[in-house]
Design goal:
The protein has 129 residues and is mainly alpha-helical. The protein contains 5 helices and no strands. Bound molecules: protoporphyrin IX containing FE (HEM).
Length: 129
C-alpha cells in the first residue's frame, strides 16, 4: 500500500511539472502575457473542454499529491496515535472537499451567473435584449 503512495508521488510529480509549467507559460507568457489576465480570459478558458480537463487534472493530481505528502509528514512526526489519526482524516476530508468544489466550479462555471441589468456583461449575456 505505501509502495503505491511512493510511486504516486513520483508519477504525479512528473505530470505536475508539465501541467504547472504549461499553465504558467500559457497564462503569463503567451500573447499579451500577464496583461491579458482578466475575468474574460478565465471565462474563455473555462468554456474550452481542453482547459477544463487540464485544470481539473492539475487540481486532482496536486491535491492528492499534497494531501498524501502531508499524510507522510504527519505519520513521520506526530507521536500521539489519536492526534495522528485525526489529522490524517482531516487532511483527507479537506482534500476531498476541495476536489469536489473545484471540479464543480470548473465544469459548471457560467460567466453570466449573477449578471444584473446595469452590469458590464449584460449585453453579452442577453444579446438582443
Ligand atoms: C511541480 C511539480 C512537483 C513535483 C515534481 C513534486 C515532487 C515530489 C516528490 C518526489 C515528493 C516525495 C518526496 C519524498 O518522498 O521524500 C513530494 C512530496 C511532497 N509534495 Fe510535491 N511535487 C510537486 C508539486 C507539489 C505541489 C503542487 C504540492 C502541493 C499541493 C506538493 C506538496 C508536497 C508535499 C506536502 C510533499 C511531502 C513532503 C515530504 O515528503 O517531505 N508538491 N513532491
Amino acid at each position: 500500500m505505501e509502495k503505491w503512495g511512493w510511486i504516486y508521488m513520483r508519477v504525479s510529480g512528473v505530470v505536475l511539472v508539465v501541467l504547472i509549467f504549461g499553465h504558467l507559460f500559457v497564462n503569463l507568457m503567451l500573447g499579451e502575457g500577464i496583461h491579458a489576465l482578466d475575468f474574460a480570459f478565465v471565462a474563455g478558458k473555462y468554456a474550452t473542454p481542453f482547459w477544463q480537463w487540464w485544470d481539473v487534472l492539475m487540481l486532482w493530481l496536486a491535491l492528492i499529491h499534497g494531501a498524501n505528502g502531508m499524510r507522510t509528514v504527519v505519520n513521520d512526526y506526530v507521536g500521539h496515535q489519536g492526534i495522528r489519526k485525526t489529522l490524517v482524516v482531516v487532511i483527507g476530508l479537506a482534500a476531498a472537499l476541495l476536489i469536489l468544489l473545484g471540479t464543480l466550479v470548473v465544469f459548471t462555471f457560467d460567466p453570466c451567473n449573477g449578471v444584473f441589468q446595469d452590469g458590464a456583461m449584460w449585453a453579452t449575456c442577453h444579446p438582443g435584449s
